[in-house]
Amino acid sequence: MKRYMLPIVAAGMMFSTAAFAQYPEKDITVIVPYGAGGGSDIMVRTVAPYIEKYLDGDVSVVVENRTGASGIVGWQALHDAKPDGYTIGIITTPSIVTKPIEGKAKFTWQDFTLIANMVTDPAALNVKKGSDFKNVTDLVEYAKANPRVVTMATGNFGGDDHLAGLQLEALTGAEFTFVPFPGAAARNATMGGHVAVGSFNLGEAVNYQESVDILGIMADKRSDIDPNIPTLKEQGFDIIASSQRGFAGPKGMPEEAVKALSDALKQALADPEFQQDAKDQGVVLDFADQKAFTEGLAAFDKNMRAIWDKTPWLK
């Protein structure tokens, strides 16, 4: 009887592989853990039609905003989803790393299947058009002379916008009053003059320069998306801060699904039409496959844990 077992098992494996090789066979849901109009939401809605274009199969990519608890609600839903390749989501740094460090999440980034990174969006300091702050030096000097008077709009506490502001405080001795906002509300508050300065990513600011002045970005060099915007580094403030935004799924996703999605995303990012759409939407592209994405998150996690142990960013 044993002589028949191996062929039967092998046949079953071939059937299973052949069946999954048809992935995708139905629509794919992408969970965005932040509100509509924010950087992650814009990114997904811009790339979704191109992922559809390069996936085999006539399927749709459906965006689902699951907001709350600084991304944790959406990530918990992603974590708990069936790992069949039909529910994936966006994970972002630093929050996917910092929230578990803070003890606010029951999972870590290692509890997901990483697919690929899509964006590395530098932090930016933004003010209402016509502000008295014409550059970063103006802002810092005033905040040093008037501690806590300057209000700074950010996303959630412990997120990339907040940590960027804390880095500026630590480097310069300036003191700000941080005001957290969900989604695109930080940008709206800045444009409306409800706060003195907004800390949010370049991609969320670059297409609103009729209403905001971007004082500088926290990057090694100027961005191709708008080379006219200076870095903080060239203004004398050596701060590097950004948000990575990539795709992930529940733990245990089939490798075939990961490869299909990663390949489709890579093709999308190489599509000239998409590249123009991305530029128009302020999406700062930076593809990294699963291996590179994993290595980058591991290094970032190690760095954040060392910082938390020495000087926790939440008290």
Task: Provide a count of the helices.
Answer: 11
Uncertain segments are 1-19
Helix and strand string, N-terminal first? HEHEHEHEHEHEHEHEEHHEH
- Cα gyration radius (Å): 21 Å
CATH homology superfamily of the largest domain:
Bordetella uptake gene, domain 1
Mean pLDDT rating: 91
**Which fold does the CATH topology of the largest domain refer to?**
D-Maltodextrin-Binding Protein, domain 2
**CATH class descriptor of the largest domain:** Alpha Beta
Which class of secondary structure composition applies to the elements?
alpha/beta
Helix content: 40-55%
Number of distinct beta strands: 10
Q: Roughly what fraction of the amino acids lie in strands?
A: 15-25%
Overall number of structural domains:
2
Family: Belongs to the UPF0065 (bug) family.
Signal peptide: 1-21
Keywords: Signal
InterPro entries: BUG (IPR005064), Bug_dom1 (IPR042100)
